[in-house]
User: Fold this.
Amino acid sequence: MAVKLTSGKPTVYSLTSPPEKPDPEPPKELIAKVMEYDDRKILVTVPFPDSIELITDVFNDLLMTPYATGGSAKSVYNEIDADLTGWVAGYKTGETVFTPSPTVNNTSTKARYFLAYDAIQPLNRATLTLLRRLGPDYPIWSVRLEFSASKAGPEGLMKLLAGLEEALPLNVPALLGSFLVSRVDPAIDLIGANPLDLIGHVPKPGKRLVYVGSHGRPETIYLYDAKKPLKSPPKSVTYNTLGTLRLKLYERRDYFRQLMLPPPYGNSPVTRAEIEMRWKKGRPYLRDLAEIKNLLKDRRVSYAPAVLKTANASTKKNWILYCLATFGGGAAKAQAKWPLSLGLKFRALYRGSDGDLLNETMWSRWENGISITGLDKWIKVAKANILKDELAAAITQSS
Assistant:
């Protein structure tokens, strides 16, 4: 715990030492707001899509040359099945499209490839899976694409499109129009903050997991919602008691160093706040990604030392100690370590922290984050392809 004495200002008690300035500085368009405190400045980015998974079945109109629709659906999709089975069996991978080592299930029923989009960092790659399953009348193929939009960026996404065109015998613009989103992880970077500096809140809070690095500092915090109590013993010993993950806070500087990679902003700590959203049904289309519901709703992240607005030095110091105790032992145990009135006051402050760094109002910048990654270009292509199909259908109906 660092104590900083400043001329002409009150004593500042902070949970971690004041950070170094980010080097390089983040792009201006990435920053939603700058929060200045007595001991540090925290740059808060717009929310942007990090990991994303896209999925679609392979329909006739996704082919480069669709089959004539005069015949039965069964005959058309049996032809598609034969084409894709032959394509997978004969496809030769190379530098842009390559298979895992060793190859995983690269058979006529499942083919898995990696698509390279970053020549400098080979870990930045997309996973493309073609999966064949048996339907009631004929086999059905599906395409799944998993990648990090924030790592790829506009240039990487252009390379990824080229990789899709190389790897698939499909019309890629039509594919983008057909893609459904099965998962997206919206993220906000807090540049200048460590996880220990923060208070995180989720709707209906339940369990919390804290991973502490070998350096002794918390590296990652998982915040889950409360799971409904069981009315009877579970039927399986593998029953998960955690609930649904609602917010993750993790320090990216330490993560990059462990991978022997340069941190994104030099020695400045960067805590990423990330929400993992998965859809099993009612999946939105990729083209509607900017219009999905507010995934920051009821989630808040605050800078802990700033929650106590005005107080004398002794109370400020006790507040920081309370935050540390809550971090390690939980709110009830932390409250018990102080006189009743002070403990109740601190607990109310902790629970009521307003989310000065992150709150649901920041979702209004989601579309900006999509544009920064370059996914807006994919969405534009997807929408244009759908409009083209609708226009063609309208012309056919009117003729």
Q: What stands out?
A: The mean pLDDT is 87. The first helix runs from residue 73 to 90. The radius of gyration is 25 Å. The CA atoms of residues 294 and 363 lie 6 Å apart.
